[in-house]
């Protein structure tokens, strides 16, 4: 999971398989909760908001209560193409990235662990002309495939939230099912990107 605090600082969070149902019930997507008794790693056990630079683990002792906080912000924090390309971006952290889709390949069906899985390769570029390779799998590839069928020849602005920087070459990919893909988004950051 990726959680955000009231300042927009994000943190990666995980739990054991035996706690997944409890977490799903107590942490619905987009709802604010007060979370107590979590295990924090990477900061000497203290909560220090960073750019996903440490992790929290939900344990049997973790307590969830309602919060009166209301904030509908998406807490978008766009990654720098330059940092990704020069290797200074942390590949252990999930990122948000936006770009114009270019060089979109055909959807391919690849065998992964003896199962057929859809994959699509393409590139995205920022307003300075920097370009990054992207490889999206499964439902993410299907979403692009369906969009291309409906909007033939149109430019696509692609926003990938909680994407992964692949350690095998410089490539952006989805992080299992944790990533969010928005094609031609209408939020302020996307409109600003399109305008430039």
TrEMBL record:
Q: Where is the Replication protein A 70 kDa DNA-binding subunit B/D first OB fold domain?
A: 1-66
Q: Origin, by domain of life? A: Eukaryota
Q: Which UniProt keywords apply?
A: DNA-binding
- State the InterPro entries in the record: NA-bd_OB-fold, REPA_OB_2, RFA1B/D_OB_1st
Q: Name one Pfam family in it.
A: REPA_OB_2
Give residue ranges for domain Replication protein A OB.
90-181
| Alphabetized SUPFAM superfamilies for the sequence | Nucleic acid-binding proteins (SSF50249)
Listed name of the protein: DUF223 domain-containing protein
Q: Which organism is it from?
A: Brassica cretica (Mustard)
